[in-house]
Amino acid sequence: MFNLLDEPWLTARGLDGSAEASPPRLGAVEEVGLRHLLLAADRLQDLVVELPTQKPAVFRQLLLPIVMHALGWPADSAQWTEMFQAGAFTPEQRQKLTDYLDDHRHLFDLFDTAEPFGQVAGLHTAKGETKGSALLVATAATGNNVPLFSSRTEGDPLELTPAQAARWLVHTHCWDTAAIKTGVVGDPQAKAGKTTGNPTGPLGQLGVVMPVGRTVYETLLLNIPFGQTSLSDDLPQWSRRARDGRVEDTLSCATPAWQTRPARGLLDLWTWQSRRIRLIPEETSAGTRVTRVIVAAGDRLTSTPAYEPHTAWIRDRPTSRTKKTGKTGKTGKTSNSTAPTSERPRRHQPGRAAWRGLEALLAVESATTNDEATATRAGFRSSVLLSSLSDTVDRMPETYPLQVELTGIAYGNQSAVIEDVFYDRIPLPLAALDPDSIVYGSLLAAVEQAEKLAAAVNNLSADLRRAAGSEPIPWDKGQRPGDTLLHALDPVVRRLLAGLRTVGEDFDESERGLEAWEEKAGRTTWKVAEQVFSTAAPALFTGRSVSRDGKEYVYRLSTAEKNFRDRLDVVLTRRSARRKRR
Fold first, then answer.
1. C-alpha of 489 from chain center
2. What is the DSSP string of 234-284?
3. CB within 8 A of 11, min separation 6: which ones?
4. Model confidence pLDDT, tens digit, residues 355-370
5. Residue among 207, 392, 389, 225 nearest 309 (CA)
6. For the whole model, what pTM was predicted?
7. N or C: which end of the chain has fewer CB within 10 A?
8. Is the pLDDT assigned to residue 116 strictly greater than 80?
9. In 505-553, where does DSSP find H-type helix?
10. What is the pLDDT of residue 159?
11. Is pLDDT above 70 for 455?
């Protein structure tokens, strides 16, 4: 027996004092079960996880669907704001949660013989084969998935405690690789003891965007969209299992058979069972351990639904196309039509700081006005959660310390191995979610300036390399000096993001902040440029003539420096104007 509601299997950090302290004082770390985590959500700051990708998995597979299935969705922004401003569950809500957890307690037992949580009871192969528990662990070596610098080989047995096994179980449902999966008895689509064509877990196809508050309670609310329309069969996976072990739901995930289908709603999507899994516990001298598992094919999403709340979207611009009018039209005539806009989840790029993607994060659509102009113009659509939050900005404290966590996994070799894990966390001023605000424009302008400064340094490097008789560094090979600059500007941009929380709509304050940003950015850019200049050979003073596209270009140190200074003046207009006034 290991019940996830009561057994301590998650690590949470408490608060030392009020959540409104700035910055909040961190309390002790404690091991908790789901019941304590939810009922004490206002007194706990955050989850502490082994790998950043575990956090969205725990929230989606357990915390969010429990809360929403027990309490129901906020009807509108006013009801959501009321819940958020309360800062904690009301006594009535706490009672509803307690009753819900009591009624469903039997469905959260990790090792139940009839209804093990997130698993299929009795799952087995025709030959009774099992695999090592490392198959669940993203950071462990198994098969072709061998993480760099892994201290363990596939031959080393990995003994997972029940708590570890539970965390990696929900992680596997969300992030598993797309490798060939074991064929099991009862899966009619298995062939020759295996299934192929498996996609990654649903979160592996996204760039996860997760708003984070000062407490677990606030984070829960920030990840719950309001105004959701629930279908009668939109249920969390545990509610599709019958109390007596019989399968009554055609969408049940309690059997080895799986389907390709659309999600029935957010509860179904959040608790999506992308694999059929069985943990095999054994008793050891150290207690119950999981050393063997079965991981088989699970349900497949037909596509990522547009209401998926934890990702930003790339919106392909509508294109005009010409088609023949048909028999009733005049011969040879054509008519113009516009192809429908298509969207796809925007995935994160490893090595690219989150603030460099602010254009996508801030491409919000207002639910109250249904205005898509900002998103369409940008070619992006922000996450459902940030768009929902933009409708509550006027009812939230201006200086609220909203954080946004971005997580993702980069897969390789046909998505069968994990190459890299992406994680970043940035402060985001609430005012930036209003496209008409000063902060919104200031942030996007600063990010654009950073990118242009990197391009200026790269152009300087290219000019000097041409003057020396070599070719510029290709954009996709090696590290260019612009990458070094963006890394150096990273803490400066983050300070700007945090500082603009207090600006509000004060134009003068915003201008002072941007002037300070340009001064710091200019000094940082020159430091990197000096490193580039230091590599210049004496021959660069005389330069070199290059013929390109029928024209003659002269590359020398003096012209390269002049061009670089001119580019800086064009990019950093406030800094340039200030220096001219001196």
1. 22
2. ---GGGGS-TTS----TT--SSS---EE---SHHHHHT---EEEEEEEEEE
3. 29, 30, 31, 32, 47, 48, 49
4. 999 999 998 865 544 4
5. 225
6. 0.87
7. C
8. yes
9. 507-533
10. 92
11. yes
